[in-house]
Amino acid sequence: MSATVVESREWYLAAYAPEGIPTSDHLKIRCVSLALDAIPEQHVVLETLFVSVEPYLRGRMTGLEEGLYFAQFNLNEVVSAFGVGRVIMSKDSDYGEGDIVICPSTSFAEYCVVSSQNLRKVEPNAGIPLPEYLGLLGIPGLAAWVGIEVIAEPIKAGSNVFISAAASAVGIYAGQLAKLKGCRVVGSTGTDDKVKLIKEEFGYDDAFNYHTEKDYDAALTRYFPNGIDIYLDNVGGKMLEAVLNHVNKHAKVSLCGMISGYNKVWTEREGVRNLLNLIGKQVKMQGYMVGSYFDRFGDFEKEMESHLKEGKIVSKIKIVHGVENFLESLGSLFTSSNIGKIVIQVK
Amino acid sequence: MSATVVESREWYLAAYAPEGIPTSDHLKIRCVSLALDAIPEQHVVLETLFVSVEPYLRGRMTGLEEGLYFAQFNLNEVVSAFGVGRVIMSKDSDYGEGDIVICPSTSFAEYCVVSSQNLRKVEPNAGIPLPEYLGLLGIPGLAAWVGIEVIAEPIKAGSNVFISAAASAVGIYAGQLAKLKGCRVVGSTGTDDKVKLIKEEFGYDDAFNYHTEKDYDAALTRYFPNGIDIYLDNVGGKMLEAVLNHVNKHAKVSLCGMISGYNKVWTEREGVRNLLNLIGKQVKMQGYMVGSYFDRFGDFEKEMESHLKEGKIVSKIKIVHGVENFLESLGSLFTSSNIGKIVIQVK
């Protein structure tokens, strides 16, 4: 039997980047040949359709021994994230050629060989655009749902909710979920255009630009005259510290991400000095990783699909064409240029 | 009817102490006359028997507008805390002369007039020494119980528990509660004598002196080769930061107090730079005030009385005779000299 071979361009980690935004010194592209017949049992070959560009990927490239947050990619390892692919070869009888699947370790590559154990089939004609499985119905949607509906439960209508990095994928979904619960929602984001956008398109009651409102404490005094009941933190550092001066009794802080710290070693990060307020206001602050909530995926998906089909939640996905644009897209997460979810369309 | 008058020495707040340990410039004693017949309805006069010297009292004397942690005493207000008193005059038919009561706002004074709304009668011959109602069955006991059994639940046997200020009243009770749950318990405290004591008398598996073990991170590496599952924090600052480098997945941090910060304004406190670990390890960190758990007092008291009567928990109360010694006793909480609970015996 002759072996069928496909050529695939793939991104791999050439060097660790302990600090700063990764560059072409750290992430490189190479071309490999995959022999389709040579894959192990319980594996499939995917033709990559879409891969999600996630902020946490950056943390997997530091090479630091912190060991506490991010499992590190190995040097020369292909970089992967959640993605959607089409099965073109299968050594698992549950999957056949042509199946469309969600895979948590889809390579930033044209083709990839993956274990069939963590795949989930999707119906391409179910009325949901495929990239949405990486957005509202994917990791950022789940992160928003866990942060608002699981960690911060029970949510009372009228609660005052603050969300940082509010124009990020998680931010725009979380804000809308909190609005659907009857909350008042205010967000912070990095440009005036994004302030306008999240108010006009994504239902935020109010928002401010954290670059121009340099005194976060004063800003929060204005935007939260009645204090903050729920804070979904995507930023950490000085913003978290400012929030802790405005929390109400029994407030909940859902720690989703701390983008202010990702490009720094921990000893260089801004310390939070007012944690005593967690005691005075009896605050619950809880960090989470969506991977621990996959057992709740059914509940999440049912609720989100219903919101999506009823038009109660607006999604926002930026499709970047071409796997070669991964590095630039990753960098854009750490500037103020990004709105919503970024997905690379490979095929 | 002739008015009966008693003379009473009482401590009052003469000046706020924003930083440092309060001195005789801040807390002064004065003599007042109380006309017993002149008290309002639903009030009683107590002859003070015992009053509890609590670390949180210090926070009520800063006069700072933080507003988030401690309700401030007013200037010239009598300083009060949990205490045990004997009713000598009552304008509430539920209380008669001679009743022994626990009162959450017992003055550091020989006599005091208090509302009868928050009193609780105790049976003086129930086999429990009266000061124990301010120790194991009082605020420190409840603080230990909430921190270990409520915030950190469910506790698995074999969990690795770390307790700072381990020779404090809360620390010695909390350590023993954790041992009763089958945990391995390690504490930090301020002298070698206290290290020895908490291991030999209060059942700690191990302990270290945080003055001589200056590198907390290295110490925790040695004492917790398998990481920390539960941390009861009484200290905050650098110790909390070090702990967050050693937490296991789904660890719980019960924030009971942050004595490292009480004598400093918040902007001067040590910032915690590694909160990102709360996300990576999906830690729940929760602050609490015992006042919010009085609805659980029945469960708490039943469990603790049973432990006490069965000899499963050893208590440690230092009785200081004479109300005039309050200031010095308060100061001793902030040095390394103190072990267990300090109670002022007034009568």
Automatic annotation (TrEMBL), chains A, B:
Residues 23-344 form the Enoyl reductase (ER) domain. The keyword Nuclease does not apply. GO terms for molecular function: 2-alkenal reductase [NAD(P)H] activity. Keywords: Oxidoreductase. Pfam families: ADH_N_2, ADH_zinc_N. The keyword Oxidoreductase applies. SUPFAM superfamilies: GroES-like, NAD(P)-binding Rossmann-fold domains. Its EC number is 1.-.-.-. It comes from the Eukaryota. PANTHER family: 2-ALKENAL REDUCTASE (NADP(+)-DEPENDENT)-LIKE, PROSTAGLANDIN REDUCTASE. This is Putative oxidoreductase. The lineage of its organism: Eukaryota, Viridiplantae, Streptophyta, Embryophyta, Tracheophyta.
